[in-house]
Amino acid sequence: MKMMKKAAALLMTLMMVLTGIASLAEGTAVDTTWTEYSLWGYDHASIELGSQDGGCKVTVDWESSALETTEWVYFCDYDEASNTLTSTYGRKDVLTFADSGELTDARTVYEDGQAAFTVTEEGLLIWKDLKEDAGKDMFFVRLLVPKAERAVMTDAEGNEYDMFAISSMTLDENEKVTAITGRFERVAEEDGMDVPAYLEGEMTFAVREDAMILVPTDPLYDPFSPMTSVDDLYRWCVDVFLEGREPEKKDGAAEIYLTVELAVNGDNEVYAIGYVYVPWQ
Questions:
Q1: What's the whole-model pTM score?
Q2: pLDDT 10s digits, 180-190
């Protein structure tokens, strides 16, 4: 039940990503919008962007019910002058699933759809459906990756720890993050309140030089601000949370506490990091 699982993971991520940075000095939401994989969310809808054959493939999913998903697939060309994707092909399908999650029916509604996609100055993705106006009044927020692609650990009781609480960052000579150390974390409940629960034992992951780092744009005043990419996680943390004060360093590692989501490849290298708001941090 790929699409439904993706939508569920999308909503979970959207609920958890609630704060961001005070300015866009380190990067903007439109810098790499059309050149790398990205996932966007609005309510029960998601938009997935990915490059294909020199253009861009855009998939829009709307979970209309627990057993039905409407999907639009567009192949688009990019216009640099207007920073807009315009479709050259558009198809709408209705996908039906059994309770088990098995796809039972895929019905094509049409194959002559047209759409355009733009990003606002605030970093929100706009879907202009030129055939049915299905994207009217939708403003998509950039997310990290679906839960299926995130680093998740499970304890002996079956509890999933899908966040990572960083306790220190290893830095190179230019103070770029090369590794992070911390514990896997999840949201637990105690006396009706959300509290942190941690998987026993710290772990260290190498961070790829080209890792995608996503943070919301306004942590102090707008907890629902859209995501933006930054190049330097350490400097962002210092500027936003420490007001420019350098943290204590030991053996090339800086003591910084931050909760994130991780995407990790087969070599246990982090290729994507997404900041996550938790009320206890």
A1: 0.59
A2: 999 999 999 88
